[in-house]
Amino acid sequence: MDNPIATFEINKYLVFGGEAFYPIGGAEDFQDSFKSLDEAEKFCIIKYGNHNRQWFQIVDRKSMKIIRSGTTEQDYILKEVYIDWDQ
Fold it and tell me: Is 69 in contact with 78 (CB distance < 8 Å)?
């Protein structure tokens, strides 16, 4: 019999996000994880790029640092902020 508990792999890049007016906070804002930064960025553009008042963060699982962060504005343009934590 198969294990009824779903399991999944947590990849290197974690994506958190949601509506700017209603952030749930912490783990409840977790959306998905991705093996590459490119995959995570594409997910954010698709999920948040065409919606008003959305936010996202891409976190490196190993360092637990936010490496990409952004919001959508009323003109529906995804605005990314690149953070250099090593400075």
Answer: no
